[in-house]
Amino acid sequence: MQAWINTRPCLTIELVRHWQPRMCVTKSVYRVTSSPFPLAASQFAKLDAAGLLGSGQSYSVRDGEPATFKDEVPCREFDAEGNVVRDPAIDARTGEPMPKSAADVFVYEVERHCDSGD
Predict the structure, then answer these.
(1) Sign of torsion, CA 46 51 52 54?
(2) Domain count, the chain
(3) What is the CA radius of gyration of the chain?
(4) Domain that holds residue 55
(5) Residue 95 falls inside a structural domain
(6) Do you find a cis peptide bond into 88, omega within 30 degrees of 0?
(7) Domain presence at residue 28
(8) Residue 88 contacts by C-beta under 8 Å, 6 or more apart in sequence?
(9) Which of 53, 96, 50, 59 is nearest to 75 (CA)?
(10) What is the pLDDT of residues 2-38, one digit of tens each?
(11) Number of other residues whose CB lies within 10 A of the CB of residue 101
(12) Which pTM value belongs to this model?
């Protein structure tokens, strides 16, 4: 059985920086990475409502447009138990290695603002 599995997660959220610029005020910067689709403003609102972007009065997505790049993922052959049999997988028709598949990756920076009220 030949299967292509994207080894990159669909969504990651990383805390990049957290600091206190003045008394009773903190700021945090998160790196949000999505693949293979970009995130809309409504999706950021859902991440915020779920508490995944920290806590505070407001957040902002820096620069609006995300950094984008292509991530090449190899095609691997798996057995019925999910173990890798062949990497890269071989095309049964041609006998050649299967080409890598490219997936779009979108990277956003989100800044969270919190004062002593939270």
Answers:
(1) positive
(2) 1
(3) 20
(4) 7-70+100-115
(5) no
(6) yes
(7) yes
(8) 74, 75, 76, 97, 98, 100
(9) 96
(10) 555 666 788 999 999 999 888 889 999 999 999 888 9
(11) 14
(12) 0.73
